[in-house]
User: Which sequence fits this backbone?
């Protein structure tokens, strides 16, 4: 039974409060979406969890033990980060070997299999990889290391559309075959919305949402129908955005819906997580 | 009258042919989308245009002059690249000052205005910026330098959804007030589809598409209606993908449409550029 508990974490950099009294629990075998604007504090939180930096206040416990300078606990967590910690001239293959020393359950065969699927040449030097292939390399390490906690900071950064599709598929296969706790921090919210179970939203260093994705989505709804019918229905409502396809319009509305009041010809559907997010986090 | 001509460009790295006999013209005051899979050769092409690397064969002319070691020609081009060429400890403000020396028409007031809109602190050191804010910093430089050619390599890398929206808006304002030739290389195709005029697609080092976006989109169509009606209509067709909202389905179909054959209740609309791209570039 693996669990992570973040207790009243505050982190200051000089005068600037990057994280302000954040408390949350991450349960075993769940996929979390960690969302927030640029500069909200997401990466700071992930750096604190993995003891790359120290909190100003509060503590982070994994299975009851504090993460600070605790190698045994840290080896239960894999952090796919924007930074590169690999020696300059290391090849992809050498990095896999190196990782398998720190993560004893690293699955080399699976990693090689993923390299093939993503057309990553294992003989290439890490420093010579493009932005997209650097993400692919790190993401394969994250999927293959077989630890209870996998933290993914912008896993699809620079990935083309085909590779992003493939990544989401492989992540779900990995999760169903070897369940683990996964935290995905991403700005491509709509693409990730289908695989996230709980949403964590940080705004200017404060935790503002920690709820199942359904609860967040229930704060609004989408309504579809002919352009004129949708416009007349949403006239007095708080519309977050709209898409039109042909003569049809789909408007995203904030607020709860009184079902009795839906005119004929209009259809109510799930709202768009990205549009709700933009609303919740706008400055 | 500014024009760029890429003539039979081939670039090899050792045994590997990164670009294979590419020829294309970039016209004045047009927005191009440079699309391709990870590793297709997009960044190599941009590096060749800006003389960061040398072609194995062929030449690139700007207003009739070869770009190679030609400072006068190169000062007409701004390249927003993934790499950082700024001294380690430089602040955003200092970088603006530095840029205005190389680009005499650099608009400092406009740059400061954009910093405010994107909440970028001009006193921050460039190296301390997050991935998202590094993109914002470079994008502001690109918009403010006032040159005839602006090349944007993944301009929205790491930007949150709100900032991506703001970027597309500011880019269009900039383009309408001070027209220029803009090349956007991006993997977030659907978001950029509305601002691109011509699409350039490179596949494994070869130019496979260079056409107005409408021509590319005319290779397919989308059809919307009830799930059952759409399914029965697309049964014998090449479906690239589909979205459903409520009881409605929108399927993306490859091929041309015989208008006479559309059953009642179905509506034909513009297809999705990203889905067509995935189809055109799949290995």
Assistant:
């Amino acid at each position: 039974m693996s669990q992570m508990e973040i207790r009243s974490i505050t982190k200051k950099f000089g005068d600037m409060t990057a994280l302000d009294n954040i408390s949350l629990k991450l349960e075993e075998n769940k996929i979390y979406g960690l969302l927030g604007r640029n500069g909200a504090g997401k990466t700071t939180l992930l750096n604190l969890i993995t003891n790359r930096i120290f909190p100003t206040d509060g503590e982070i416990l994994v299975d009851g033990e504090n993460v600070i300078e605790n190698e045994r606990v840290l080896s239960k967590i894999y952090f796919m980060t924007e930074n590169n910690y690999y020696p300059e001239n290391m090849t992809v293959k050498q990095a896999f070997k190196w990782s398998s020393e720190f993560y004893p359950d690293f699955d080399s065969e699976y990693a090689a299999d993923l390299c093939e699927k993503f057309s990553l040449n294992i003989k290439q030097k890490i420093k010579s990889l493009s932005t997209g292939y650097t993400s692919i390399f790190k993401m394969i390490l994250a999927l293959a290391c077989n630890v209870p906690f996998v933290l993914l900071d912008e896993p699809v950064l620079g990935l083309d559309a085909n590779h992003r599709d493939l990544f989401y598929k492989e992540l779900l296969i990995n999760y169903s075959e070897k369940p683990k706790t996964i935290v995905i921090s991403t700005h491509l919210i709509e693409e990730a919305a289908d695989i996230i179970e709980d949403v964590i939203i940080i705004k200017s260093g404060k935790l503002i949402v920690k709820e199942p994705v359904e609860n967040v989505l229930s704060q609004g709804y989408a309504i579809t129908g002919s352009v004129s019918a949708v416009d007349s229905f949403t006239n007095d409502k708080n519309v977050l955005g709209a898409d039109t396809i042909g003569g049809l319009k789909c408007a995203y509305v904030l607020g709860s819906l009184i079902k009795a009041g839906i005119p004929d010809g209009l259809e109510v559907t799930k709202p768009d997580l990205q549009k709700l997010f933009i609303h919740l986090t706008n400055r």
